[in-house]
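SAMPLE LOG
Freezer: B-3
Tube label: C17
Construct: single chain, 597 aa
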Amino acid sequence: MRSSPYPAVLVLALTASLTTLTPTAYAAEAADPAVVGTAPLAAKPFMGWTSWSMQSSKYPGLNPDGDYSYLTEKNVLEQADAMATKLKPFGYEYVNIDAGWWRDQDWTPRFDAYGRQAPDPERFPRGMKAVADDIHAEGLKAGIYLPVGLEKEAYGGGEVPIWNADNCTTADIVHDDLRTTNGWDSAYKIDFTRPCAQKYIDSQARLFADWGYDFLKLDGVGPGSFKTGDNYDNVADVAAWQQAIASAGRPLHLELSWSLDIGHAADWKRYSNGWRIDTDVECYCDTLVTWENSVDNRWDDAPAWTRHAAPGGWNDLDSLNVGNGEMDGLTKAERQSYATLWAIAKSPLYTGDDLTRLDAYGLSLLTNREVIALNQGPTPPARPVTPSNDQQVWGAKNPDGGYTVALFNLGDAPAPVTADWAAFGFTGRAEVRDLWNHEDLGTHRNRITQALPAHGSRLFTVTPHGPAPHKTRYEAEAAGNTLGGNASVADCANCSGGKKVGNLYLGGRLTVNDIKVPRAGRYVVDVAYAGGDTRSVRVSANGQGPVAHRFASTGDWGTVATVGVPVTLRAGTNSLTFDSADGYAPDIDAIAVPRTR
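STRUCTURE (predicted):
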């Protein structure tokens, strides 16, 4: 939850076609400053910097004149200069000005004669166009910010005229009862059934185009931002912005914030170029972030959104603050894990760090060409391939036939993490490359295990040389299985066989019977499941030693995902039980068991 109104990002891409590049080819292209920024809007996740992390932090010296006082023309242009020198050669290009550019140090707003936000003359004495011009002179792009709706202070008793709209005033663009909207209820909800309403959004888009801005973050958007109900449904606002941008004469990347409702993912994809999937990453404390507040939330929240990311629109995990060491508030291991998840999830890579004082380790994280290539190239977003316990493996199959493989230890103590090749769909030998360390690790057979520190990670590309394993599929709803407690068979259009077993709660359980394997040992069993939220289930083979596993949300109860669960089976016939115990478990579609280990 934001501690003050208006921080977030809005991005609109009108076209999106991703040029097919291998990660290596992309890395070479990104190194050429002449190539940066030539792709269509949102063809790749955007890269850049945002002012919000520093202006919202209580780290000593960042906001010496009071909360949010960091946001000034001088500071923004210093960051732009540092980006041009240090990060631009690696693909970073957007310099995004966040909330407060139209408010003074007491947070009192300024508006022009047409109810549009106007820059505070103390923060931005030369105005917003001059700032955008200076950013462009560095070969970079300029971003700006707005909250959704008509700000209450802009209403002016309903008598403020709308620019370029005869006989339209602010009274003609909102609901007569002045109902409020956005994540802070700081604005009146615009009524888009009234013809003057679109004219107001058009006037804002035209103003930003005239100033030369390339990016808009639209904040407090719902459904989401911790608000529900008709007042907080801003889909019409986002659609109006798309229309306004299309006619404004300048492309604008439109990014939506914050913590958007996944139930409206189709709307966000239709009308914008990106959408925040979670609350703010900033801790609003004496550092920029902390691990617990709220970097670590993303491992639970990102998987449900994975399938919605594609050229033209991306899942936004928020700012990547890994470059300043002590000011970030993280260990080195946490900084690398943070950067790893953002990269493999195909999140935009925009940092909120002070670019004028990046430490050597932070700079190495932000400028690793192999990791950037995963994020910016044609590799798909990764998702968990094991249950979402403290020790996790994430991955994706890449267009070149290899795999992205990330190992995470999210626990508070060191622990080993194992990636089984079988969970990725192959067995035998595979070549492994460590991307953070630029090191070939040789050939590993069937799996790789790494000892990781608390909150640590490793990131690999894996090239398989072994065959795909033969597996036997067992449907959850098969007549020979055993259901207990509340468990029942339900229809499921996206499930194999059109059925699943659900109602696994408060003792509900499913036992899959007659599982046959030729030899005793450890098997990685594929579990296909559906879950509208993250849920735990106890898995046991032959009634022995149940192990609790958390399964990440798939986004809704009709979308199926698969994770690999290791179990020990005996030679011959086995049973596998999924037990909700005293909690709530995901629905089970089917399992697939390797015929040999």
